[in-house]
Specification:
Layout (H helix, E strand, L loop, with lengths): L1 H20 L10 E9 L3 E5 L6 E4 L20 E8 L8 E3 L1 H17 L3 E10 L2 E6 L2 E6 L16 E10 L4 E5 H18 L6 E10 L2 E6 L2 E6 L20 E10 L4 E5 L7 H4 L9 E10 L2 E7 L2 E6 L10 H4 L5 E10 L4 E5 L7
Antiparallel strand pairs: 1-2, 1-4, 2-3, 4-5, 6-7, 6-9, 7-8, 9-10, 11-12, 11-14, 12-13, 14-15, 16-17, 16-19, 17-18, 19-20
Length: 360
């Protein structure tokens, strides 16, 4: 009986050793191994990688991109490659990472994309100083303000998907620089000819304001950006385009010029209405005394609104018989009485005088 029991124990031991030898326990840090998610815990998954115990996959090692729920990244039962992050703990468990594998694979992918000058889609996830942070191909990247279509980050961009080109990749420094403007320039080159064929000078079109600069506004017309110069926004003098229009606003504009050679479109907003200079030809005349409001003051004079959309110049020499400082004499918004000294509306010029009122 004793011999039979000893023989059974020996056989069981031999079978266990055979089973034990089926597993390869020679896992090293930085190895990439196949594994399957077998269980979800409070802050980690358990992963079967063929070791004597299940490996631990912490939430922080799931993805380089923010996620709401762990199973948005990988689910129980899914198989994948895992990076050995740490050697066994006191319980004989290894720590593994999913994002380290994706990290390396995605950097290689992006380097190929850059080499082939391909366009990819990125999702804007936050605004930072000088640009926006995006998620592209599973990695975080940066699009500088100068490479954004809008030229200026704003809250309306969050969660928007944009087409981008890869400007720079550096896996060691975790540096990924992207450009929306380069991607759009390539797209523009592909469609601009067809778009321009369907447009005519003086045609009224609707577009979306995609960028505001000091010198004017860029408006998306059927996928092609047209320029609305600051001088064509209003008949009145304005300090900055943002005083009149807003980013993302849709407006109707008139096509002022189409340059077939450079494939550029010039637009006008002020010409959507009647030219106010034509309205005043019969309303004013030289020698007439009128009232106007001070719109702008400079060292050489002041610009006076005398009619909606019409400004006239009051030179500093016409303010008084003595030397005066226009900034001491006038304030923006003041309503003053002036005399029309020169009236040439066909040239959009009107000269005013205060000192000649006494002589009139």
């Amino acid at each position: 009986m004793t011999q039979t029991l000893e023989k059974s124990i020996e056989q069981a031991k031999t079978e266990f050793e055979k089973l034990f030898m089926q597993y390869d326990y020679s896992f090293k840090v930085a190895d990439v191994v196949k594994g399957t998610i077998v269980k979800r815990e409070n802050d980690h998954f358990l992963v079967d990688i063929g070791s004597k115990t299940e490996a631990i996959l912490p939430w922080r090692e799931l993805s380089n991109v923010e996620f709401k729920d762990a199973e948005d990244v990988i689910k129980v039962g899914a198989s994948a490659d895992f990076y050995i992050l740490k050697e066994e703990n006191d319980h004989g468990q290894l720590f593994v990472s999913l994002k380290r594998v994706a990290f390396a694979q995605n950097w290689n992918k992006l380097e190929d994309i850059k080499k082939n000058n391909e366009t990819i889609t990125a999702r804007i996830i936050s605004l930072v100083k000088g640009g926006v942070v995006v998620e592209a191909a599973g990695l975080r990247g940066f699009v500088p303000s100068s490479q954004l279509r809008t030229g200026l980050p704003h809250d309306g961009l969050i969660n928007q998907e944009i087409d981008v080109k890869v400007l720079e990749t550096d896996a060691k420094k975790n540096k990924l620089i992207l450009s929306q403007r380069q991607a759009l320039a390539e797209q523009r080159d592909q469609i601009v000819g067809e778009v321009i064929k369907d447009l005519d000078v003086d045609q009224v079109v609707e577009g979306e304001i995609v960028r505001i600069a000091d010198f004017g506004v860029f408006i998306d017309i059927k996928g092609v950006d047209g320029l609305l110069p600051i001088s064509e926004i209003s008949w009145q003098r304005i300090k900055h385009p943002s005083d009149v229009v807003k980013l993302g606003e849709k407006i109707a504009v008139k096509i002022l010029k189409i340059d077939e050679e450079t494939k550029r479109i010039s637009l006008s907003l002020k010409r959507m209405g009647e030219n106010p200079w034509t309205k005043i030809q019969d309303q004013f005349e030289e020698g007439q005394i009128i009232k106007g409001s001070v719109n702008k003051i400079t060292s050489f004079g002041a610009f006076i609104n005398i009619f909606p959309g019409v400004e006239a110049l009051l030179p500093v020499a016409e303010m008084s018989d003595s030397n005066v400082n226009p900034f001491d004499l006038l304030t923006v918004g003041d309503e003053i009485e002036v005399l029309i000294k020169k009236f040439t509306p066909q040239e959009h010029r009107i000269g005013l005088s205060i000192r000649d009122i006494k002589k009139a």
